[in-house]
Amino acid sequence: MATKDRQLNVRLAPTTDRWLERVAGGREKKAEYVRRLIEADMRRRQEETEFAMFNAAAADLTEADREAREELLGAFSNRDAET
Q: ∠ CA 49-43-40 to the nearest 5 degrees?
């Protein structure tokens, strides 16, 4: 069973509504523009979470671990810049 999209009603100040209409490309496109903004923010937050997890995991790497990774990956290794 497919889930149904939820509807959200938001009150905007007239100046904000005019701005939104202008950047969205028209009155009919405002909802899609807001939807894309929300989805982009969700992706950004997910990436931040993943980067934090990756950095936490990488914090325990020793120089030997990094050398082993370099040996395995060769040119594909993305060695940390320490400059």
A: 145
Q: What is the C-alpha separation between 59 and 66, in angstroms, rounded?
A: 11
pTM strictly above 0.85: no
15 three-class SS: helix
Q: 65 falls in which pLDDT band (50, 70, 90)?
A: confident
Spatial contact of 51 and 57, defined as CB atoms under 8 Å apart: no
First to last CA, the chain: 54
Tokens of residue 73, six digits = 């990956």
Of the candidates 16, 1, 13, 67, the residue with the CA atom closest to the CA atom of residue 24 = 16
User: Number of helices and strands (H, E) in the chain?
Assistant: 3, 0
Most distant CA pair in the chain, distance:
60
